[in-house]
Write a structure and sequence with these properties.
The complex is a heterodimer of chains A (244) and B (430).
Chain A (H helix, E strand, L loop, with lengths): L1 H6 L3 H32 L44 H16 L4 H22 L19 H13 L2 E2 L4 H4 L3 E6 L12 E4 L4 H14 L7 H10 L1 E7 L4
Antiparallel strand pairs in A: 2-3, 2-4
Chain B lengths: L1 H20 L6 E5 L2 E2 L1 E4 L4 E2 L4 H17 L3 E3 L9 H4 L5 H6 L4 E10 L2 E10 L8 E8 L3 H17 L8 E8 L4 E8 L6 E2 L7 E6 L5 E5 L6 E5 L9 E4 L5 E6 L6 E5 L6 E5 L5 E4 L7 E6 L5 E6 L6 E6 L6 E2 L7 E6 L7 E7 L5 E7 L5 E3 L7 E6 L5 E6 L4 E5 L6 E4 L4 E5 L2
Helix pairs in contact in B: 2-5
Classes of the chains: A mainly alpha (244), B mainly beta (430).
């Protein structure tokens, strides 16, 4: 009898054992979870993920270790490019001819032609003001900024004059020549050119005065300055900046 | 009497008054950007008697000098409008102005008793019809080219103030693979009349000029790369061995004064740069490290030396004091920069060198010693190596895989072949 009792467990003992195990397990799990929560709270936050953006101006960035490419300098200014100065003198007769022709047309034809002219003019304007590949001196046919007359003169001079290569660029950037451009009533340049202050380099001075002599004739100044220019000439400071 | 005394004073006062009365003039600035070659005409030389052939040579040489200078455009004689027979050695301005000539070279040559007499005239069209330069020379017919070069030098000096380079020489090495030999040759700067200089051994390399016209080069005559010198007061035409240190005696460069030669010696095992006297006595050891230091070249004032070193891991150009020490790296781009040559102009702090680009091609570059700015002078036209400056610092000679020796301006323009044969490591006389 006593042997049987020793070998067996009371049901209450078993239930108590299970309840004890559950309680201990819960307590241990709670402590572990609490510690993990504490650790998580004390850790620094994970680094945020960034999207790296580089601002590229012209294609790929240059390799700082790479040897440079050769820079090919632009050719000297050519004479046969740039603004057409002959347009002013011929504008009036061209308009007159158009008026005479128009007189022979019917109203309907005239309206159709006017519309066509407008379309053509718009198209011409778009084409004349730029080129995707770039064009030396641009493609503009009229100077819109600054003084249009002086812009014309500067362009005319720059198409004729270029610094002689015998003058080093570094020296040329320091030189300037003060001169007066005097003209006759028809725009013919009076020679010899009046030099108010030499640049100090005879080759520079000669090349400038020779260029004006080659130009021979300039467009007439606008009416508001015609008399003044005829009487006093136009003071010019000639410098050379080179290609930047 | 009183009136006479007061008259100048009255005139001066009137002039001053007039000047004050004039309004101050305003000047509108016009800036140019283009640069153009100076247009020069070289019409046929007038034959004063028996000198027609020499005259053709004279005109051709002057015209070629002007073209090679990179400063002038020689106008084609077919476009001349001037009546040359009527003009003689003078000029009428209008026909030359009309063809765009800015300068005209006239000459008359006469052959008397085997001696050539030449009168040269230079006209600057902008200055009128009087010659701005006039020179007379006498010499043998054979020396006609030399007379023309001398006037070419005068033209260059007139327009730029610089010493001309048309009478200078270029030394170079030409290898003969079949004979397994390489020899040092010298020619006129324009490639005319090359002749062999080295008579020692089969392998002769890396020539360099002394300021007095002597030439040094390395030869294996005695089975060691020793330094030899020929000419320039160093034994006449016979080559004299001036440095025979064990190992390398190579890559010599004279100081501007001629008092010392910088070169690479490997007497202690590692290639280092030393200076020696023109007689070969060691003056100073300039570098001391485990890297290879080679190819020294002096600055115009003789105070600094540029050289090649691989102390930073790859061959790069460095600069140090001519007495050694204070070395600083000059090139940081590219991984194989060598063969430096310092521009002899004091106002142009440039070192030309050979650099290998990322495509494995060799090209000529310059680096500004002051700013470190790099500029590429050759690109896309074969491999180009071994730059050497003209004595006035206006041109650079170099060897090219396009064949032969070439000249170009210091901006890399006007590249022209002057010698067709195989040629390496040119050295321009001082």
């Amino acid at each position: 009898m006593s042997l049987r009792r020793r070998r067996g467990f009371e049901p209450i003992t078993i239930v108590g054992f299970i309840v004890t195990l559950i309680l201990h397990g819960g307590a241990v799990t709670g402590v572990l979870l609490y510690r993990r929560a504490l650790e998580a709270a004390s850790k620094p936050p994970p680094p945020p993920s960034y999207v790296v953006a580089k601002l590229l101006r012209l294609g790929q960035p240059k390799d700082p270790k790479k040897l440079p490419d050769k820079i090919v300098p632009q050719e000297a200014t050519k004479k046969d490019e740039g603004i057409d100065l002959s347009g002013d003198a011929h504008d009036a007769p061209a308009r007159k001819k158009k008026k005479d022709d128009d007189a022979k047309l019917s109203d309907r034809q005239r309206r159709a032609l006017d519309r066509a002219d407008l379309l053509a003019a718009a198209q011409k304007e778009i084409e004349a003001e730029g080129s995707p590949d770039g064009v030396r001196h641009g493609t503009a046919t009229k100077a819109e900024g600054g003084d249009p007359y002086l812009t014309k003169l500067a362009d005319l001079f720059n198409r004729t004059w270029a610094l002689p290569a015998i003058i080093p660029a570094a020296e040329a950037r320091r030189l300037y020549l003060l001169m007066v451009l005097k003209i006759d009533k028809d725009g013919t340049i009076q020679t010899p050119i009046q030099v108010d202050r030499s640049s100090g380099n005879a080759h520079f001075d000669n090349s400038v005065t020779a260029a004006w002599q080659r130009i021979k004739k300039i467009p007439l100044p606008p009416p508001d300055r015609f008399a003044s220019m005829l009487a006093n000439g136009l003071g010019l400071k000639i410098t050379w900046k080179g290609l930047q | 009497m009183v009136i006479r005394k007061l008259l100048p004073l009255a005139i001066s006062l009137c002039a001053a008054g007039a000047a004050l009365a004039q309004p101050k003039r305003e000047y509108t600035e016009i800036s140019g950007t283009g640069q153009t070659l100076y247009r020069i005409a070289v019409p046929p030389v007038i034959d004063g008697g028996g000198a027609a052939d020499a005259g053709r040579t004279l005109a051709a040489v002057v015209a070629n000098d002007m073209t090679l200078s990179g400063l002038f455009k020689v106008l084609s004689p077919s476009g001349f409008l001037a009546n040359l027979a009527k003009e003689g050695t003078g000029i009428e301005l209008d026909p030359w102005v009309n063809v765009g000539a800015q300068a005209v070279v006239k000459a008359r040559a006469t052959l008397v008793g085997g001696q050539l007499s030449v009168d040269f005239y230079l006209y600057d069209v902008g200055k009128g019809a009087s010659p701005v330069l006039q020179k007379s020379y006498k010499g043998s017919v054979k020396g006609a080219r030399g007379l023309a070069h001398r006037f070419g030098d005068e033209i260059l000096k007139y327009y730029t103030g610089d010493r001309g380079m048309f009478t200078t020489k270029i030394a170079f090495v030409s290898a003969n693979p079949r004979a397994k030999s390489s020899h040092v040759y010298v020619m006129d700067y324009d490639g005319h009349g090359p002749y062999r200089v080295s008579s020692t051994g089969n392998q002769n390399v890396l020539p360099a000029w002394s300021p007095s016209g002597g030439l040094v080069y390395t030869s294996w005559l005695w089975n060691n790369p020793d330094l030899f010198m020929v000419g320039g007061g160093g034994g006449g035409g016979r080559a004299v061995r001036i440095s025979k240190q064990p190992g390398l005696n190579i890559g010599a460069a004279f100081s501007p004064s001629g008092g010392s030669i910088a070169l690479t010696l490997s007497r202690d095992g590692n290639p280092e740069i030393y200076t020696i006297s023109p007689s070969g006595a060691i003056q100073r050891r300039l570098t001391a490290n485990g890297a290879i230091d080679a190819s020294p070249t002096f600055s115009p004032d003789g105070g600094q030396i540029a050289f090649v070193s691989n102390r930073g891991g790859s061959p790069q150009i460095y600069v140090m004091s001519a007495s050694g020490g204070g070395a600083r790296r000059l090139t940081f781009k590219g991984n194989y920069n060598q063969e430096p040559s310092w521009c002899p102009r004091a106002d142009t702090p440039l070192v030309a060198f050979t650099g290998r680009d990322d495509s494995g091609n060799f090209d000529i570059f310059t680096v500004n010693v002051s700013s470190g700015e790099l500029k590429r002078l050759t690109q896309g036209e074969g491999s180009n190596k071994s730059p050497t400056w003209s004595p006035n610092g206006r041109l650079i000679a170099f060897s090219s895989s396009r064949g032969g020796l070439w000249l170009m301006t210091k901006d890399g323009l006007n590249q022209t072949r002057v010698h067709k044969g195989g040629s390496q490591t040119p050295a321009w006389s001082r």
